[in-house]
Write the structure tokens for this entry.
Amino acid sequence: MALRTVAISTKSGISAAILVAALILAAVGAVLWRAEFGSGLGPADWSAIRFTVLQAALSALLSTMLAIPVARALARRRFVGRGLLVTLLGAPFILPVIVAVLGVLAVFGRAGWLNAALAAVGLPGITIYGLHGVVLAHVFFNLPLATRLLLQAWQTVPAERFRLAAQLGLTPRAVFRSIELPLLRQILPGTAALIFVICLTSFAVALTLGGGPRATTIELAIYQAFRFDFDLNRAALLSLVQLGLAGSTAALALWIIPAISLGGGQDRPLHRWDARGGLQRGLDALFITLAAGFLLLPLTSVVMRGVIGLPQMPASVWQAAGTSLTVALISVVVLLALALPLAGWIATRARGGVEAVGLLGLAASPLMIGTGWFILINPVASPFALALPVTALVNALMALPFALRILVPRLRDTVQIYGRQAQMLGLSGWPLWRWLILPRLRQQIGFAAGLTGALSMGDLGVIALFADPDSATLPLQMYRLMGAYRMEAAAGAALILLALSLGIFWIFDKGGRWHADT
Amino acid sequence: MKYLTLAATTLFATQAWAETPELVVYTYDSFVAEWGPGPVIEAAFEAECACDLKFVGMGDGAALLARLKLEGARSDADLVLGLDTSLIAAAKETGLFAPATVNADYDLPVTWEDDSFAPYDWGYFAFVHNADLTPPAHFRALADSDLKIVIQDPRSSTPGLGLLMWVKDAYGDEAPAIWEGLADNVVTVTKGWSEAYGLFLEGEADMVLSYTTSPAYHLIAEEDATKAAAAFDEGHYMQIEVVGKLAGSDQPELADQFMQFMVSDAAQSVLPTTNWMYPAVTPQGGLPEGFEQLIEPGKALLIPNDDVPALREEALAEWLSALSQ
């Protein structure tokens, strides 16, 4: 195989893949093993599966489609505040679900700004509750992520290509067809699959904005099976359905990604000579404004609410913030240790289907993983003593698919372009990583590390099963405040969470882009 | 490595202090929060028991029971505090709980008879609204009105399940018709109480399913008199929270002592303004100022514990079909 020209060791990559799969399958296995009795899947479960697939597919489609014009506009334009906007693109994604939902409702809800504006001009109000509300909220969460992934890809296009296109006097349409379309074909299927999988495990968002039990998702059924019915058999079956859906979608999407390279360049800063026309400028400005508004208005409400709540926050929030930061940093280290060898292995294969392994962590219900590991750990060690390492590991697993989506395309290019040179120079093992791969992937590694840190800050999934009162994370502490009527203090905690998550994201992301003109 | 060291230190520390008996109580999350009843009760009990009382918080009542079932007889817990009347039958079915006797003169609207569990606080479910709203007087009036309500999903939340039992107990076979009438009033259904209450405070609904004691929080802790609970003619469904002793406890006497302590003045006087529920035994000093302003339902509804599981299945199916149309 031509791609094998580069001497990336596949051994550590394969080991990482096996480890990831084993960690997740062991959890499902443990739950099945503990299941004593149980029912199969009933008609209600099947309708939950149908609704879950429908909303996830719509959310994925809409998020990726809308991301194309936004990412294209951001890639072509330079303006004041662009860097800040790109950083803020990470925000909705890392907010705890309930905070984001309240933010979305502040704008689109019954008593939201949009309805207030409509009423002011005498128009009838809109209702957000229903399938469209679920999709809207999921687009709010995932459009920014899709935009960032596309933007990242756009910036890997060698500057020489756009220079050549400009010299040839290609129209924007021709530039799109010759440069951007092949790029999109490479990046869109994976992005859509990723968002599909994220939405597959949606629970609180789907239920709250879906407006009732019509909007029952698989994850809700799993939650019910675990918590109220204690039907481990059904919980495990539903988890397997979730894993199967996610795995097959991901494998299909990654398989259809063409294994073509965009060609090498000299890593010059990207300048665009095309799209200087008034219409192009106008459209780009429109897309950026719309996306920024859609993104920033709910965030503004989160910030406003948080500022009011700050003085009422108990000191324990800061302690929880410290715990969360520690977990986040460990998660980043674990993630890089898993993701880099895995990406190295995937990038040397002709087809990217094995990347689906990475998606397992995201597709598995956090409650399932938590319960499974609890069953495994409890007989041999105190779950409380292991709370933080387990949380960090699970967070890293959840971030793994994002990291792979970010790392693999660039790594694949690097391998294709520099593989032969590296081989001629006899580079292999650590020196290969040190001198070729890591420097060329610095930007992607920064982005992946930032996203992981931020995601880990906001995650509630597993810690709830393992945490003792003293090691509460920030999201858990925020939920505790909400559960005690202290909504304003909780809003303050949410603001701290948002600030810390964005801070982590910004530091890593900026670190990766240091001295790079992007 | 740090955590392994930490774990090892904890292990040795426990061995070194083995003379001080440790009493482990599993409870729900909000009980152990620094603003919850946990810290005060821990200090008060430790002052009289010469023991180390350790509260371990996890989720809500339903999560507690699921956790116990996962751990089975191996559980480290000596007691479980925070199961409620809708979970008692399921809890007993596990066979993990031991009989216990607690002597108390309960001030509950119903007579309490149970050989394993002792109540420590209780409340009525109710719809909470802004004080400037004139609330409907019963479910039918609510169904006929244009008022918007937000409720919790009975498949994931205890109050949600409470509402289900409330309608079922008050209306029996007519419950499906009531739910069909309510369907257009329900703005949305949330995962848990916090989400629903948050939505209500944001103005997404006119009323939210909560407790008659909710306005007491706003009144006492925030000096805010703008929240009220609607009194319904049908009567209000009750939630009684209980504490029970595990059969596998290695400190059975101490566990009995704790159960008795939970109904003593020292614990009962703390609960109203930390857990925001009614105490099971009114403390000597009476209820805190502000509680006298709360509505007092004319009738207390409660389905016998043993009937809950079967009725729950039935009511859940009715609820799903009425709200899925």
